[in-house]
Specification:
By secondary structure, the protein is mainly α. Helix content is 71%, strand content 4%. It has 18 helices and 6 strands. A 4-stranded antiparallel beta sheet has the order 1-2-3-4, covered by helices on one side. Strands 5-6 form a two-stranded antiparallel ribbon. β3 and β4 form a beta hairpin. It is elongated. The relative contact order is 0.15.
């Protein structure tokens, strides 16, 4: 529900929580459990007030210590960093250790083709993770089914299926690369060293390097700079709008001062002020989000050198915690803010009364606030989410194809001396 801070015409600040109605966004709770994405860094509430479009507030990352951030282990973070490491430890010796022990030579002496060994080893290692992944998947399905309204259930299940598929592809990249390296290396120690180096470079070094590069190439203004720039621009625009509205109404009604108008001038002036700042807010925030989208696009291209970059963006998009979903929510909240204050200003114009000293006075009772509609966030569907991360998803698929082809090629070249 919408909580009104004050019914007077001087205090029209309205506090709008991000997840405002269960019918529109409750299923997002289940997705956040999987991957909270950028949400800890962008906040969870929007303060809607007159004459100003605000950023989101209450960012958990602002109050978190370094130790708390390290301990914030989500399922997505575990899948992105820890499970690939486990895959490497289980697969690095699949061929190399058997070569060292002589069992590989015995198998091939029986007429077993090396290419026939790869599917079996792949299935064996994959089955070792089923006791972990299957219960987690089952719990995720139950959570989303419990929290999601019936009209959104199909979209949520599709998102979850694509989420699981993207991580299966990501795991497959590490599994087939590990098997391919194991088939090519003479010793299991060499295979382990190569794969651990690959894991460290792609999951620890590359993401931070991409983030730093994106910030340097596409810098954004700080929150303080953005706020000060908006305040200065809106102050000038509102002063100009007030003068222009006053002059236009005095000329239209042929009166000498605004107090002689047949309605409360403040209501019309407040609405004119609101409308004069719309384009300014749109311009400032568009420039800000354009830079962020450019950083995001660069990060997607970073999937060329790190499969983690691809799966991170896909994961955040499918769970609704990426930049595009955040921007979409901000725009819908701003549209609702404009509806609220248009209704309030119109009420001032239509329902103000003149006091004995010639001043216009307006008091809003319960009837006004009950007419203001609830904010209902309409989330984008899964197709929109996939389109936002199509490049990253495509590059992740290329990684998988290359890893599979490389593994089969390495196994086919096994020779026993």
């Amino acid at each position: 529900m919408t909580n009104v801070c004050d019914g007077s015409t001087k205090a029209k600040n309205i506090r709008m929580p991000r997840r405002i109605t269960a019918s529109s966004h409750s299923s997002h709770y289940g997705r956040t459990l999987l991957d909270n994405g950028i949400q800890p860094y962008v906040g969870s509430f929007v303060w809607l007030e007159a004459h100003r479009q605000n950023e989101m507030l209450y960012r958990p990352a602002e109050d978190a210590t370094a130790l708390q951030r390290f301990g914030d282990l989500t399922p997505a973070l575990a899948c992105q960093n820890l499970i690939p490491l486990l895959i490497i430890f289980m697969a690095y010796g699949a061929f190399a250790r058997e070569r060292e022990q002589g069992t590989l030579q015995q198998l091939m002496s029986l007429g077993v083709r090396p290419s026939a060994l790869l599917p079996g080893k792949t299935a064996g290692i994959s089955c070792a993770f089923l006791p972990i992944l299957l219960p987690a998947s089952f719990v995720s399905i139950l959570a989303i089914a419990w929290l999601t309204p019936a009209e959104l259930l199909a979209d949520e299940i599709t998102r979850l299926a694509l989420f699981m598929l993207s991580y299966a592809i990501y795991f497959g990249v590490f599994l087939f690369l590990s098997l391919g390296v194991s088939a090519r290396c003479r010793s299991s120690a060499s295979a382990l060293a190569i794969m651990l180096s690959f894991w460290a470079l792609t999951t620890l070094v590359a993401p931070h390097a991409l983030s730093d590069l994106a910030r340097n190439l596409y810098p954004t203004a700080s929150s303080i700079e953005l706020k000060h720039g908006l305040e200065e621009s809106t102050r000038i625009a509102e002063a100009r709008s007030w003068e222009q509205t006053s002059a236009a109404l005095l000329s239209q009604y042929q009166v000498e001062k605004t107090g002689d108008l047949p309605f409360a001038f403040e209501g019309a002036a407040l609405q004119a002020d609101e409308e004069s700042t719309y384009s300014l807010f749109e311009k400032h925030y568009e420039e800000f989000f354009t830079a962020l989208h450019a950083q995001n696009d660069l990060h997607q291209l970073g999937a060329l050198i790190s499969p983690l970059a691809g799966v991170q963006l896909v994961s955040m998009a499918l769970t609704g915690n990426d930049l595009q979903h955040h921007r979409d929510f901000i725009l819908q909240a701003e549209a609702h803010r404009r509806v609220i204050h248009t209704m309030i200003n119109d009420y001032i114009v239509r329902n103000s009364t003149k006091t004995a000293d010639g001043q216009w006075r307006s008091e809003a009772g319960r009837e006004l606030w009950e007419r203001i509609p609830d904010f209902v966030y309409v989330p984008a569907n899964w197709r929109s989410a996939v389109s936002n991360c199509a490049v990253g998803l495509g590059l992740l698929g290329i990684w998988f194809v290359v890893a599979v082809a490389g593994a089969f090629g390495a196994v086919a070249r096994i020779k026993i001396l």
